[in-house]
Amino acid sequence: MGASSVTPVSLDGAGPGFIIQVVKRIVILVSLCVLLLIAVAALALNSLENSLDAKVAQVAQIRLEQKRIVLRQIAWLKKANADQDFRVAGTRHDRRFIGVYGFVYSVPGVTRAKANEILRHKNVNFIKGTGDGVDTAEERKLHRLAVHYAARYNTLLLHRLGRGNSGQQVTPLRHNFKIQ
Hints:
two-stranded parallel ribbon, single chain, 4 helices, 4% strand, mainly alpha
């Protein structure tokens, strides 16, 4: 089988009108490619904007829910009575301490060593809505109220455990009691 031969096309005999037509078609083809790229870029940008808008809305919704939790917890802590809540928990034999979320977990009202022991045994009921993000006045107020409440409650619990367990380690009890 022989190699197929290709006859080259010569433009020597073509007139100026033919070359102008070829150039025009090339320009049109390039223009269409550019328009297609612009359309694809516009679609991608629109999709990105929609995605960004959805993310912004999602973050705003999460932040709004966090604010609701903070405000509910502030209202609850303003009315809460650590002494009374401690007595109620005692009737359920609930020996968990009250904790506050933050950059590090804390158990107000107890020493650092005792807090580490309590945290290691997961014997803590944390107050929902507290955390290290105290960016607003409400979050600072919640943190202050939570620390005050937890310190009082934990002091009462330490006193009870110190008197009632004869130096023996207290076995943590697991209940579904949640601070609202």
